[in-house]
Amino acid sequence: PPEALTYALQVGTEPDGNQIRSGAAPQGRGPVLDTGFVLGNLASGRYYWRVRAVDKGLLASEWSSESSFVVDVDKPVVDSLKVQPPVIVPGRRVNVIVNFRDEPAGMDNSKSPQVSLLLAGGTTELQVEQVSFRGDLWIGSTEVEEPVAGGTLTVLVRGAADLNGNTMDPYQTVLAAPIAPG
């Protein structure tokens, strides 16, 4: 029979850390037949791990080179939103700037969110076209063509996703929206 071997696994939330699994060698294990280990219920973040072999006399090899992996179970959220200019003039462009927050994976810039405006007294959403989407910053623009009542402006953001496929919950905010004559 093969010599009895086991392994020690160390997992932490920082380099050389052992906050998740200490790396102490388990005793009484038999021959290593499986090299997998399952960690469950980890929060979003980057984790660092390394492993070493331990023989039946409890002599251990050197630790392997440290590697890392990312767990991402958090959905992206809107961190801040701005509409420019602050006074809406019919016949002119309105820009919408959305900053997303998503750790640790970051935003998937190939999947543009749907951003729309609902002007005071209106019933139809005005679609905002993407101008740029880099990193966590999305910029879009649209033109307000019809005169509208002043008061409020509702901004809706849907469909943004991070690099691990987590899709944001729909976001909606109401802003003061002074309207100037065109």
Features:
rod-shaped, seven-stranded antiparallel beta sheet, four-stranded antiparallel beta sheet, 182 residues, mainly beta, 11 strands
Describe the fold and architecture:
The chain is mostly beta strands and 182 residues long. Helix content is 0%, strand content 45%. The chain has a seven-stranded antiparallel beta sheet, with no helix packed on it. Strands 2-1-3-4 form a four-stranded antiparallel beta sheet, with no helix packed on it. The protein is rod-shaped.
SSE inventory with pairings:
Layout: E1 5-12, E2 21-22, E3 45-55, E4 67-71, E5 77-84, E6 92-101, E7 114-119, E8 126-134, E9 137-144, E10 151-158, E11 171-177
Antiparallel strand pairs: 1-2, 1-3, 3-4, 5-6, 6-9, 7-8, 7-10, 8-9, 10-11
